[in-house]
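Hallway conversation turned thread

IA: we were arguing at lunch whether anyone had actually written out Carboxylesterase end to end. Turns out nobody had. So, for the record, here is the sequence (278 residues) and right after it the structure tokens. Reply here if something looks off.
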Amino acid sequence: MNHSAEFQFEGGRDGVLLIHGLTGTPTEMRMVGKGLNRAGFTVVGVQLAGHCGSEDDLLATTWEDWYASVEAAANDLRGRVDRVFVAGLSMGALLALRLAAVRPGWIDGVGVYGATFRYDGWSIGWTGRLSFLLPIFKRLGIGRQRSFIEQPPYGIRDERLRAQVSAAMFAGDSEAAGLPGNPWHALAEMVKLSRDVRRRLPDVLAPCFIAHAADDDVASVANADLVARRVRGPIEMLLLADSYHMITIDRERRTLIERSADFFGRIARDARPVRIAA
């Protein structure tokens, strides 16, 4: 059964759509959402199709379904605000970039947090590095019941927070902490999404705020560099020295929130129409 962990915080006429990662939940974006809302933004945290339920729920969906969740949420938000910004973590960053590439008229700026095109961080074993083979396995029907079980440090440098998140994850609270493993067939969809978005990066014309942990355990900084090289909009980079992959909840989340609010706020101010007195 899929519960909804989506959240909405009403604010001003500038909106931010926040997108969680693969097997994750909107909860991992909630603190960023609250911070951006305090800075005056209307914020929506979308729940991707197939997430926050069982492994079977996730396996019943494809990357196209996940992207459709994003586009529907963005379209809804557009009806309520003057400008829409989009930001995502990990796979969510890829979905955010895809939205900006496919719907350039909708999106005024992109937050690219811990973008994951390849699982090439220091905690990823050889099995994760062979994930490019998974679409072939899925097509052949191999490994439907197999998962890569998450390994310490679970993307979190803060040890106290890591203990809380891993306890919830392995207790089966998928709505709060996501699934404890990445099913092979879901990862196969992620690989296909990654290939699609990589091709589309030159179509991203909106300004991009690219934030990444310098010591990311899941996806190396090469993923952030790929975005910086390929997109055609202006970019700003932030490398975080005291976090791992989950930068939206780890030790430097306040820095991430402040820099994101400042980045989106500057775009919104620059785009304001000048009111001519009658």
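OS: looked through it. The longest strand covers residues 83-89.
IA: good, adding that to the notes. Confidence is low (pLDDT under 50) at residues 274-278.
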